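URGENT: need a sanity check before tomorrow's submission.

F., can you look over the ISL3 family transposase record below? I want to be sure the sequence and structure line up before it goes out.
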Amino acid sequence: MPNVISLSSLIPAGLTVEQFEATEGALVVTAFARGSQAACPSCSSPARRVHSRYVRRVADLPSAGRPVRLRLITRRFRCDVRTCRRKIFAERFGEAVPERARRTGRMECIVHHLGLALGGRPAASFAERLMMPVSNDTLLRVVRRRAPRRNDSLTAVGIDDFAFRRNHRYGSIICDLERRQIVKLLPDREAATVAAWLTDHREIRIVSRDRGGGYGEAAALALPEVVQVADRWHLMENASAAFLDAVRKSMKPIRAVLGATTIDPKLLTSAERIQYEGYLRREEMNGVFASLAADGLAIKEIVRRTGRSRKLVRQIVRGEYNDVFRTRQGTLDPHLPYLEAQWDAGCRNGAELWRRLRAQDFHGSLRVVGEWATRRRRAEQVSGCALRRISSASTIARLMTLKRDHLTKAETVMVAAIEAGVPALAEARALIDRFHVMIRSRSVGHLPIWICDAEASLLASFARGIRRDVSAVQGSITEPWSNGQTEGQVNKLKLVKRQMYGRAKLDLLEARLLGAA
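Structure tokens as predicted:
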């Protein structure tokens, strides 16, 4: 026997259908409340005497692909309690139709979730397809009005920054690491702002953060007894970056070890010759900076005389700037063995070599192959001098940190030569390996010895930073917490911000992120 569906079951609960009308644009349902009395909103006393009636027009969820309009016959009652200041009031329909609302409660819930998921304009376009037309401004107002307020007790929080506009304005995001939810968005990343928020949450015991000084200072100022935890991923990344910086500082001795200190301009292509001339000009300017610093001039005075940036002058004076010329490496490198074989076989024409390379899935231009052939021909004519190609600092750093069984024979020979000729770099590589093992194995007792050893090596700057933040680094080794999930919430925030088409103000961002959680 088929089930019978009444019209009253298709509209919000507690209402009775009086009339149903199917117009051209919508379905119009006239309904009224079933009860014979209503409670006074001021004194909560039941009232039975009806003063008058009026019609409320409310939008409801669509039916059969057509929008539904409710005509609610609303009664006005008289309150008979003499002490009550309200004499006449309109009946309420509860959560089914909120007070002064133009939509039913269930439609308001759908509109709210559309706003949380899609924002303003995309949600308005999708709502129109669902036969629930609503403007983008209304959607955003609903999201703001229904924004949740979290008052949960916090034990472990993660703090990180995010950009409203990169390099100009930043905010701070605070996450509950236990519940994996966003708690608060702050308008900036100043230490005073973060400290003020932490002061209002004295129950916090763990603060996970990156290794920037601002959040650590704020946590120490607001909650002196809190345990600070540095992010382990950032520690590993900073260690790798410190080793790469050490390789860059050692490029000149590396070139000397590999026999690439002599460059014959005759063997350079036209593009590489232009780069080499620029390298010589920079080397000359670096010598001027060094001579002025040797005469006792301050960095500020050198900047004033030369007109160069303060950062560049400071790096050169302190020996942190290493400009090394190296020949270009491009799309032709994977095909060099094939080219050498063809050259030895007697093919010396650049165009013919290029046509043969095209059959080997080479997508470069004829000019690239022609320059290689010119260089190769000149190298045979010049005796006693050859142009040695050296890898970049990032490539050398990667090869030195890989296991030996993952390297080719040529790469193994090059790494062995570097380690033998630049022992300080080999020592730095060993220190980085020790640091990574210490973080992975949670061996906090080895940290003081590692800091002392690293301060006497090429990693001195990184070691000094670890010493300044040693308590947070120890926390990252001993505590199970990490700032990884905060980084993930930042990615989610960026997605939501870009969906807002420039309207992602702080309160709206917070309402969408907290509402989605």
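My own read: The chain has a mean pLDDT of 85. The longest helix spans residues 270-294. If you see anything odd, call me.
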